[in-house]
Amino acid sequence: SDRDRALADRLRALRGERARALGLDPGVLCPSRTLTGALLTDPRTPGQLRDALGLRPWQWQQVGDAFCGALGLTGPGRPERAPRPPKEKTMADLLDADTVRRELEERDGWAGGTDGITRTYRFRDFVAAMGFLQRVALLSERASHHPDVELSYGTVTLTIRSHAAGGVTRKCLDLADSVDEYT
Length: 183
Fold this sequence. Notes:
By secondary structure, this protein is α+β, with helices and mostly antiparallel strands. Helix content is 52%, strand content 11%. It is built from 8 helices and 4 strands. It has helices at 2-22, 26-29, 32-40, 46-53, 57-71, 97-105, 126-143, 170-181; strands at residues 111-113, 116-122, 148-152, 155-160. It has a 4-stranded antiparallel beta sheet, with helices on one face. A hairpin with a 2-residue loop joins β3 (148-152) and β4. α1 packs antiparallel against α3 (32-40). The chain is elongated.
């Protein structure tokens, strides 16, 4: 209907404004097909909209208020938060010192131990370092595993550990590999 098209256009405009403010591609923030599909479900509450969109918590946090306002959805002052994913692994999933050492020997530039693995990357300037961090953020969000970050002009140091499990897990090594594929 014309009303649905107008609402979808309004949501796309709101998404575009927020994406520009964050320096992201609008499709990363919320894919267009997701917007259209969510409107077809005719959501009546912020929770129904959140579920229909299927966004990650960080995405919902960025667009939820604006989308609910545009659709006239009432509920708590802030949109409901998406449920947190289950905690990552348990102590049994921690890698032992020998395994971490062997794995790090196979990865250029990575160092550390069972409490975390670290690598420093150097870039020509601050903008290049920030571009790298944006790519790391997207990779980390996809993996639902986030490194600690230190930034100093053109130098970025990543430390990867599972805060939930209390040390290095296989997921930490997988994230390190993913980051290295982009450098």
